Each structure stands twice: as structure tokens, then as C-alpha cells.
From TrEMBL:
Pfam (any one): Glycos_transf_2
Signal sequence coordinates: none
Protein name: GT2 family glycosyltransferase
Native species: Hallerella porci
Domain of life from the UniProt record: Bacteria
Domain (Glycosyltransferase 2-like): residue spans on this chain: 7-126
Length: 313
């Protein structure tokens, strides 16, 4: 029986680059997929563009009309994920360009590691970085951001994420686990960093993650998203991130507390105790805090980030 592969594209005022993205998805070497698109009440030409593609490619594209406006990418993608029934899922961001072997290579890595689709499994890759006009800025997003080009232990993903939603593929086992209590998740969505981070942590804790050592997508850096792609060695970027460290760490603690509550019956006792302690780590004396973070793998990647982490937490 053929697997059902769903690509989920959440849009909002994305008319500038939307056509280029959709064309790149339709040009995939692996063509056995359905592209599901949901628009979040755009005020530009996005709805018109989507209707045009749906009309021209009815066998590949399905437009979803969700009941309510999500108001953000995290909520929007999770709403779509809950709505669509498939065996394998991928996310697509409206500004990017997929390499023609994007789906093919992620799927090949998936098939090598999950023959029966029973274990929660997530596969991800690197991506290149381009400017608004499509010119190459960096061949590797992970290198540019000084992020690990490998899979990390579970606790790393509570403080940092090297898995971008636009280059991840995952199975229904991971989806069903992550959304096992959709109502509770929706009610506490403010405690979840982003949809990709939530899936990454869930896969790391309960399943398996695979890294594909190839840039399978062109990530577009432009005015609306440029803050997400700056070399960490830039002085301005370091200063900005340093100021935000404290709020980031408190957010990580709150997320851990929610994660323990959400997966309480599924977490091993030892792991539950570690995460509970991490969720209250700010109340500990600094020396004890540092020791706990280091011993349990809660340190960020890179010397600059770790220094900021130890000073600001």
C-alpha cells in the first residue's frame, strides 16, 4: 500500500515569493505527495495565487479552510497537522525554495531507519541561505548560525533548536504522540517555543532523529525574517542575543514544566525528575545551577552562547 505523504504550507501575506516556492515543490523528483495549503486571512494577493494553483493542479494541491484564524505560524501549522491525515508529513514556509531532491533525500533517510512506521521518527537537513533576489549568501545555515550539524541529546532541545520546520520530515507516530491531547496543547500554546521545536523535543525524548548532511532548501533572508539569520560572530547580533538570554531561559523553563505535565504518563520517572528540576532551575544558587546544566546536557552550542547562558541564567 502506498504511503500518504502530506506537505503542509501555512501562508499569510506571502505573495512576493509564493509562486516560486510552490513551483519548486511541484518540481520535486519524488512526486507521490499532496500539498495542503491553508491561508491565515491574508490581505495581499496570496488567496488569489493559491486559487490559481489549486485550479491548475487539482490532483496535487488541496486548499484547506480551517474554522478560525490562527494568528501565528506555530498555531497555524499545528492546526493543519491535526486536520490532515497522512503517514508522513513535511512543513513548507512561503518564502523558501525547495531543492528538487528535498523530499527524495529526506524520504530515503526515513525509509532506511523506520521500515514499519512504528517509532516516532523525525528526519531533518541543513539548508543554504539566499537573499531576497535569490543570490546565495551562505551554503550552510547551520554553519552560518554556529549550530551543530548533527543530532543532539534530548535536553539540548529544551534550550536550543538546530532543526528547522521547513527541512523536517516526520511520521504519523510522532504526530499522534505530539498531539495526543490537542485541547491541552492548544490551551497552553503560549508555553511552546515553536511547532518545530516542540516536535524536535518530542522526537528526541520518545523516538529517533536523523540528520541528512545536505542543504535541501534555499532559506530566503529578507526584511521580514532577517533577524532569524545573522552570523553569531557579528557584534550587534551577540549584543542583541545577550540581552534576550534571560527571557529565553525563563521561557525554556516554562516549556519544560508544560512538557512534563503534557507527557506525565509517558516520561520515565528519572527523566521527569530531571525536567522538573530544570523547570525550576532559576531558583537555585548560581554554582548549583551551572553544575546541573552542564551535567545534564542543558548547555547551548558554541562558546559565546554558553558564556551568555552561564552569565544571564
Amino acid at each position: 500500500m502506498q504511503r500518504k505523504i502530506a506537505i503542509l504550507l501555512a501562508t499569510f501575506n506571502g505573495s512576493a515569493y509564493l509562486r516560486e516556492l510552490i513551483h519548486s515543490i511541484l518540481a520535486q523528483k519524488e512526486s507521490a505527495f499532496t500539498l495542503y495549503i491553508s491561508d491565515d486571512d491574508s490581505s495581499d494577493d496570496t488567496p488569489k495565487i493559491l486559487e490559481e494553483f489549486a485550479k491548475n493542479f487539482p490532483e496535487k494541491i488541496i486548499l484547506l479552510h480551517l474554522e478560525k484564524r490562527s494568528g501565528g505560524a506555530c498555531a497555524h501549522f499545528l492546526q493543519m497537522l491535526a486536520y490532515v491525515d497522512a503517514d508522513i508529513y513535511l512543513f513548507a514556509d512561503q518564502d523558501d525554495i525547495w531543492e528538487e531532491n528535498h523530499l527524495q533525500k529526506l524520504l530515503a533517510a526515513y525509509e532506511e531507519n523506520n521500515a514499519k512506521n512504528l517509532q516516532p521518527l523525525l528526519v531533518f537537513s541543513d539548508m543554504s541561505v539566499i537573499d531576497a533576489s535569490g543570490n546565495l549568501l551562505a551554503p550552510s545555515f547551520l554553519k552560518l548560525e554556529k549550530l551543530p550539524q548533527k543530532v543532539l541529546p534530548p535536553h539540548f532541545y529544551f534550550v536550543q533548536n538546530n532543526i528547522s520546520g521547513c527541512v523536517m520530515l516526520f511520521n504519523a507516530a510522532l504526530k499522534n504522540l505530539a498531539l495526543h491531547d490537542e485541547k491541552k496543547l492548544t490551551e497552553n500554546l503560549s508555553l511552546v517555543p515553536m511547532h518545530d521545536a516542540f516536535l524536535a523535543v518530542t522526537a528526541a525524548e520518545f523516538g529517533k532523529i536523523i540528520f541528512v548532511h545536505s542543504p535541501l532548501l534555499k532559506y530566503r533572508k529578507h526584511a521580514k525574517n532577517s533577524l532569524g539569520v545573522q552570523a553569531v560572530t557579528q557584534v550587534s547580533h551577540i549584543a542583541e542575543r545577550f540581552q534576550k538570554q534571560r527571557s529565553d531561559f525563563l521561557r525554556a523553563e516554562n516549556f519544560a514544566a508544560f512538557f512534563v505535565e503534557y507527557f506525565e504518563k509517558k516520561l520515565p520517572e528519572k527523566e521527569r525528575r530531571i525536567l522538573e528540576k530544570f523547570s525550576k532551575i532559576s531558583s537555585q544558587k548560581k554554582i548549583l545551577r551551572w553544575k546541573f546544566l552542564a551535567q545534564n546536557g542543558f548547555l547551548k552550542a558554541g562558546i559565546f552562547r554558553r558564556i551568555a547562558q552561564l552569565i544571564r541564567w
